[in-house]
UniProtKB/TrEMBL annotation:
Keywords: Carbohydrate metabolism, Cytoplasm, Glycosidase, Hydrolase. GO terms for cellular component: cytoplasm. It is an enzyme of class 3 (hydrolase). It comes from the Bacteria. Residues 1-320 form the Glycosyl hydrolase family 13 catalytic domain. The keyword Transferase does not apply. InterPro entries: DUF3459, GH, GH13_cat_dom, Trehalose_TreZ, Trehalose_TreZ_E-set_sf. Belongs to the glycosyl hydrolase 13 family. This is Malto-oligosyltrehalose trehalohydrolase. Its EC number is 3.2.1.141. Gene3D superfamilies: E-set domains of sugar-utilizing enzymes, Glycosidases. CDD domains: AmyAc_GTHase. NCBIfam families: trehalose_TreZ. It comes from Microbacterium immunditiarum.
Length: 461
């Protein structure tokens, strides 16, 4: 709570076949996985979170069923066998009973378990040709339940579409979901921090990538995506509040779907991790942290499974290796998802948080959380109050650039170049927070050392 966190998000808790798993191989959507303690234990967890002042967000998966222990199709036409997505046969949303099965499940988590929000996994894989899209219908029903129980209930989409329809109000033709994750934000920040430009990161090496996601939300808003080989996305209307985008520098997918499950802390200096903290916590969207990010956890987060069927386990491991080939990663370092040590390595070492550089980084996140709460500019949802400018490193690689970012009267200056850079400071501004030794001279300029950031703003009245 001292970190300023308001919500805790869980990966899927539905039942899967095996002992441990990320949860996306669920086959019994209405059951809480046994090793988590079953339904009563989950209700106690939610109640404890609420008692501590935390809301609970739960990930739910309605785009596929897991490959092991899946007997649901024996009870009805739940799947389209002739149509597949990345994870298996598509769910048949043309069947009214199947749609009801999904919607009633979502309502169960919100009503029976008192969960506050659902994160809807990979909604781009929901193939629905109905006049009223499943997401629209689900949002209608959740809003009705919210009115009945007298507490806010939230739907958050994970989507690869870059389509603002998901978060536009239903009155203007949108689906009316509360928010959606922004992978574009992640990719732009990741490239700026690491210089990594393989695979889907390639487009985000563009000099204006960070500027664009800061001021307009989506980088691909109708532009050509080299990874997809086509134009992709649509612009977000400036009337949409910026908090509808969940923004993050790390998450379970972007770490766990790397060859070795390495976090930023395993490749970046403490100074660069501090800059990542500033970018994340001053972002126009709703900031999200991945477990341990706030202290620069050194433990990896790797993809792990425990499929009982040896053939399925082997196929999963081979599939992971093939997936990484497109990103140009070394196949020989990919851990076996079925190896119990892969699971054990992914557990946090909580003792790290109180020592050395880990503790210093945690203190910075706490300071940033306080600053975000103190300065209304850092929670202003208007896209029209935002500004961004590349001020150094135009002709160098993507990991060595400098930026001036604006949120109303507050400015965030970032120097990721290899040299000190002098920024002109707005008249009357003062340093609200600095990650390095920022020198504010009498002439109104700020000298910012390499790999550092500073937050400037006028004194509050």
């Amino acid at each position: 709570m001292a970190l300023g966190v308001t919500h805790v998000e869980l990966l899927p808790v539905n039942a899967f076949n095996g002992q441990w798993n990320w949860g996306y191989d669920g086959v019994l959507w209405y059951a809480v996985h046994e090793s988590y303690g079953g339904p009563a234990a989950y209700q106690r967890f939610v109640d404890a979170a609420h008692a501590a002042g935390l809301a609970v967000v739960q990930d739910v998966v309605y785009n596929h069923l897991g490959p092991s222990g899946n007997h649901l199709p024996e009870f009805g036409p739940y799947l389209r066998d002739a149509e597949r997505n990345t994870w298996g046969s598509s769910i048949d949303l043309d069947q009214p009973e199947v749609r009801a099965h999904i919607i009633e499940n979502a309502l169960m988590w919100l009503d029976d378990y008192h969960v506050d929000a659902l994160r809807l996994d990979a909604v781009h894989a929901l193939k629905d040709s109905s006049e009223k899209h499943l997401l629209h219908e689900l949002a209608d029903r959740v809003d009705a339940l919210s009115a009945h129980v007298g507490r806010p209930l939230t739907l958050i989409a994970e989507s690869d579409l870059n389509d603002p329809t998901l978060i536009l109000p239903r009155e203007v033709g949108g689906y009316g979901l509360t928010a959606q994750w922004s992978d574009d934000w992640h990719h732009a920040v990741h490239v700026a921090l690491t210089g990594e430009t393989v695979g889907y990161y390639a487009d985000f090496a563009a000099p204006d990538a960070l500027e664009k996601v800061w001021t307009r939300g989506f980088f691909h808003d109708g532009t050509y995506s080299s990874f997809r080989g086509r134009e992709h996305g649509s612009p977000i209307p400036e009337t949409v509040p910026a908090w509808r985008l969940v923004t993050f520098a790390q998450d379970h997918d972007q770490i766990g779907n790397r060859a070795t499950g390495d976090r930023l802390s395993q490749s970046l200096s403490l100074d660069r991790l501090a800059v990542a903290a500033v970018l994340t916590m001053t972002a126009p969207g709703t900031p999200m942290l991945f477990q341990g990010e706030e202290w620069g956890a050194s433990t990896p987060w790797q993809f792990f499974t425990s499929h009982p069927e040896p053939a399925l386990g082997e196929a999963t491991a081979k599939g992971r290796i093939a997936e990484f080939a497109r990103m140009g990663w070394d196949e020989s370092v990919v851990p076996d998802p079925q190896d119990p040590e892969t699971f054990r390595r992914s557990k946090l070492d909580w003792s790290e948080a109180s020592a050395g550089d880990h503790a210093r980084l945690l203190d910075l996140y706490r300071a940033l959380a306080r600053l975000r709460g103190e300065r209304p500019e850092l929670t202003d949802p208007s896209f029209t109050s935002l500004g961004a400018e590349l001020v150094g490193g135009e002709g160098t690689d993507a990991a060595h650039r400098a930026f001036r970012l604006r949120r109303g009267a507050v400015e965030i200056l970032v120097n990721l170049t290899e040299e000190d850079i002098s920024f002109a400071a707005p008249p009357g501004s003062r340093v609200l927070l600095a990650t390095g030794l920022a020198v504010h001279d009498e002439g109104g300029a700020i000298a910012l050392p390499s790999d550092s950031a500073v937050v400037l703003g006028p004194a509050q009245r």
